[in-house]
Hemolysin transporter protein ShlB
Amino acid sequence: MTPNYNVFCYLLITSFAQSATMDATQQQQKALLDEANQQRNALQKSPSFLVPLLPPVATDSHPAPCFTLRTIQFENARSLSPSTQSALKAAYLYRCLTLIDIQQLVRDITNTYIEKGYVTSQAYLPAQDIRQGTLRIAVMEGLTESVEIEGQPLRMVNMVFPNLTGQVLNLRDIEQGLEQLNRLASARYTIDIQPGMHPGYSRVLIRRQVDGLPGKINFSVDNSGQKSPPKPKCRSDWSSIRL
């Protein structure tokens, strides 16, 4: 699989059967996906320790069909509190939303996960018909498949990173363990997050840092959003981030 340096790449699939032709809707969807993929190079250049948020969706001056939503349902968003979910929905309910507006809501949800440390989780749209005023947004909450520390036995993993395997991956938890490890060990270590053996899972590799090189976090994300639970269709790396 060829890496393409894009933290998040996902397919937006939904049905809009209104006055606009299907060709026009498909062209709009393609334009949104192209715009999202243009962020790949910017992520590499970020000097910040924090994971960069996805930028706002580009607006379109051309007329587009819109749909008034009375209900927005989040599926599998277990790591977001009810109050957080309500706040995200509030700005979009009872408005006539275009495809771009809905795409922005999906991006807002993903950014909320990133801000809370869930850097391998993302929202996506399953196929649906929203003409009745109900929108469903699903979330793939990325899980931790395994944790390994380069050059250290399993008992060190269990001591420094307890109970992470099988849980929703949160960068904050890994950072806390890394700080403890760097205090205990003579060497310095960095975080490397790689795709796991199963869709939606990631391997956390704590690598021994080579002397003279700055710490960094590498992300290889394989959760591409699509109408079914995301499958590994793209690999993305983000590096050059100092710990």
